[in-house]
Design a protein that fits this description.
about 130 residues, mainly beta, Immunoglobulin-like, 4-stranded antiparallel sheet, 3-stranded antiparallel sheet, 1 helix, about 35% strand, elongated
Length: about 130
């Protein structure tokens, strides 16, 4: 299963960050034998400010990055405001098994794959 998972990646890469609604978080997508893993950098964003939603085959990560603390900013890379990323989820994903957790500014969304069943011999018992 190849992870052709993104619907807005072409648009995301083509647009300058200032022209999108808010600033979309950086996202990495990994695939192994059992799952797809989406890792999003969301520094300063808590679990109460993030929504992960699956609608049919579209997974959306949306949220709000709070304003920066008071004071003179020496460097600001994460801009405050709303953000949203939408990905197409390929067939073969267990929708009810999708989980999301955020820790230390990193959101991990796990999309488990349907397990492939190996043929097996079924014993026939006498009754």
């Amino acid at each position: 299963m190849n992870a052709q998972i993104s619907r807005d990646e072409r648009d995301h890469q083509a647009e300058a960050p200032e022209t999108r609604r808010g600033v979309a978080p950086a996202v990495d997508i990994f695939e192994n034998k059992t799952e797809l893993l989406i890792v999003a950098d969301l520094p300063g964003v808590g679990p109460g400010d993030i929504a992960v939603r699956l609608d049919k085959n579209e997974l959306t990560i949306a949220g709000k990055r709070a304003s920066a603390p008071e004071g003179n900013a020496l460097a600001v890379e994460g801009r405050p405001g709303d953000f949203s990323r939408t990905f197409l989820v390929p067939q073969g994903i267990v929708a009810d098994g999708i989980t999301a957790e955020v820790s230390q500014g990193v959101l991990k969304v796990r999309l488990p794959k349907v397990s492939t069943q190996k043929p097996r011999q079924i014993a026939v018992k006498a009754s």
